[in-house]
Batch of 2 targets.
Target 1
Amino acid sequence: MKSPFRKAIVGVDKRLLVKDALHLLPQVSRRRFLAGGASLGALTLLTGCDVADGETAEKLLAHVSKFNDAVQAAIFNPNALAPTYPASAITRPFPFNAYYALADAPQIEAADWKLEIAGLVENKKPWTLDELTRLPQETQITRHICVEGWSAIGSWTGVRLGDFLKRIGADTRAKYVWFRCAEGYTTSIDMQTALHPQTQMTFGFDGQTLPVAYGFPMKVRIPTRLGFKNPKYVVSLDVTNDYKGGYWEDQGYNDYSGL
Amino acid sequence: MSSLAAGDPHGTTETTGKAVHPVWVRVCHWTNAAAMVVMVMSGWQIYNASPLFNFVFPPGVTLGGWLGGGLLWHFAAMWLLTVNGIVYVILGLATGRFRRKLSPLNASGVVTDARAALTGRLRHDDLSKYNQVQKLMYAGILIVGALVVLSGLSIWKPVQFQYLTALFGGYDTARYVHFFAMSAIVLFTILHTVMALLVPKSLRAMLIGR
């Protein structure tokens, strides 16, 4: 036997050497090293569905998704404008989509409804629908793209969210705006998206008052983000530095979800 | 049936000397194969959330368990596919392998070789030289590969890459392009695998180089 490793260091047991080296690593890196090994193992067994959908793979994929959030935020232009379309391109009927049936959608009385304001904002006075719709409004005809793959073009009318945030004295250096909806739905957007000129507090659809199917009394329309980032039946807006997640984000949809 | 894959069905040719496939080709080939399996299976999962046609893919051949899981796999394997693809294209161009292996390519040559292949008269004297049908298939799949990536980018980022999306005829049309490019890759893979199994020497060359 002429293995070069055999007599590398005379009198040293290789197994003990490795054991000692491992002890020198800080506790955290050791654990991470071992977990990393296990994850790679899971990745090589793609066809075993139990493994692919197992906890280790899930954790690894969640890490990659967070990495993807950071990469996308770094390389894509946050101010890019979504394409707009002529009125003739509007999809009629525009699809209703939610994780519940239309019959179960929140039925809100305009008179009972108020938009609650929370977080890093100077003036937290709640806003009635009347007060909101008296603000300057504009109309956009843009494509709504669902995470499922389908798309539809709609005409939305409302107030620029960025203008509204400035009006109420929101700290626009905060990281997120978090929305809560009447049925319990939540979603979070980054401040740059909130200030995007096409991000809109929507009160009208296709020339009419926003129908129940599309979020009466208020939807937040963001043509640069996937549909699930466009909340309907919004009841509160929270300007915050804490990432509060959302209904779908918490289940694994990529938080960035920018188009 | 003869072969579209490089090989010597009669086992008479000595393949000594330089490797048929250098190590970078083999590493890129199998990395791409693994990435493509994940991309296609997770892509079928994503397709099932909003099918373009009157069918869905059986859950047994999809990856991720649900739409969210499929998306996570798709956009994780994307990195492997992209990094590997960039390495492959750079080395393919820099080493002259693409030019050497895939040209010259002409229509009459393809017809002649296809006819010879189908009648079992195609010769494979040199494992390192592709016949005209192979050249067409391997050049074609590179183009389809570019198409699947570009159409994928155009449906992933239809605002950021809106001119690319428009080039594909808009968002909805780009989804069909992405689907058909995937279909072409799956068909190619089936044919390519059958050929490799019919001419095991070609499979060996892609594994150990010669």
Target 2
Amino acid sequence: MTTTASLMAREGGRLGRTATRESAVSRTIAMAVMIVATLYFLTPLWWLFVAATKSRADFTTTAPLWFADFDLFGNIAALFQYRDGVFLRWLANSALYAGVGAALATLFAAMAGYAIAKYTFRGRETLFNVVLGGVLVPATALALPLFLIFSQAGATNTIWAVLLPSLVSPFGVYLSRIYASASVPDEIIEAARIDGAGEVRTFFTVATRLMAPALVTIFLFQFVAIWNNFFLPLIMLRDEALFPVTMGLYVWNTQVSQIPDIRALVVVGSLLSIIPLIVTFLGLQRFWQSGLANGGLK
Amino acid sequence: MVRDTVVTPSRAVRHRKALAAFLLPFGVLFVLFYVVPILYAVYQSLLTVEREGTFGPAVQVFGGLTQYIAVFQNEPFWASIVRVLMFGAVQVPIMLGLALILALLLDSPLVRGAKFFRLAFFAPYAVPSVIAAIMWGFLYSPNLSPFTAVTGSVDFLSADAVLWSIANVVTWVYVGYNMLIIYSALLSIPQEIYEAARLDGANQLRIAWSIKIPLVAPALVLTGIFSIIGTFQLLAEPQVFASFSSAVTSTFTPNLTIYSTASVPNMSLAAAMSVVLAVATFLLSFTVLKLTQRRATL
């Protein structure tokens, strides 16, 4: 960064003379920064992909950033067979926690945000401020308190201990409220009422369609938050069969020094665990980018 | 900012049932999994364990602020707070600075292929913290890294360096996310403002400094506050790095201290630590918000 800054300063002295020169030099510097940044962000992912294609022997003996014998599918097969396919189980658990959790969290947040935006009732602002306070309470700060509650109910080490707390998205309520008041016109709700549609039906058939970009945004960010959550499963779950994939890979990684063979599984498993997220983000980018731009951050 | 519906009270009363249907699912879950756990943690933190004689059964009794006095006398806890403060003071400005520079470049006419770069920089956000830490752990390790020339001469996992190696992992994951938030704010600036500035002869650097940065200040404050919260909650990355480096102790960050205290198990002390950490996080984010607001009005 220092070299770029000094370069910019040096070029700055010459800039005044010609305008065309300025843009050519600035363009080059800008592209150079972009390329360096791309290398920084993508090299680790490239390394992971290449490493996942290698046999155990090639992993330590061949050039780390280029392919040796391409054996990605052999490695994946080995991973899926290891200990009766426990990794597949973890992937399924993560999909369940994140998929069901994010879908329901989005629905509940959308209903609450829509209600706060479109109905007047006593305590509306108070309610909204309490929810906003919830945005500032980080998930990890709640993990231990949640453990205390669930252990009172004898419900730690169950699916519910991870799934139920994931259904709450205060940020989702915030985004839904802003988005609903900006993009769902009162006239449309009024028209639906005149047509005889009930309030709940109007929400599901009319409002959700208009709020779609916000809903996709909420779903995605909640999905990522649950998929990535570590403290809650760490503190709640003892039974390996209930682990999400991050928790399983973490435990494997702590065992690498005792079972060196497991390292190859950690590498392939890491690659497989991020592919669903990258694919989801790329596939839905049109929605979440406009959701972020229009709703959340004004 | 928020254009909510203003309805006469009689109409709100008419839709009371619908309103309840919209608000209850989120409301009940929010109370059960946000409010109750926090209150219960406060309650638990006021308890203390007493024994009759040396071998008598342990009983939980009301201990007032005993646990809080213990928290304030707990040196590892404060050492971990100081460690994350140091971490945040260095990492947050670097991360947000990078995010701002990249967002400005993406938004400038200097860069071609902005769409590709935007996705490339954002991709690491799809990598769970646990996986990112495992991956970088491999990249740092002297015998596996593709960068042996670097890792051979610098020990990234030594007691002095490991905190900053973790800072790099966090930066790698979150620069793109913060960049996207700032970029979304940049997109909402009307183009006419730039045309006026260009007519006045301002170059891109000047436009960025005098127009764009002041206008995205709210987004910077928002990302700053979320970053501070995140820093105080550090857990997954150091927990993973404990497998790579003996310098990462069980009291490396506040949340690790809470986790290891809860595993003792000393639930009351851990609950008191959780409460202190939550209050500290809140106070710090609130202070940042107020300070930046004051500066913005000057």
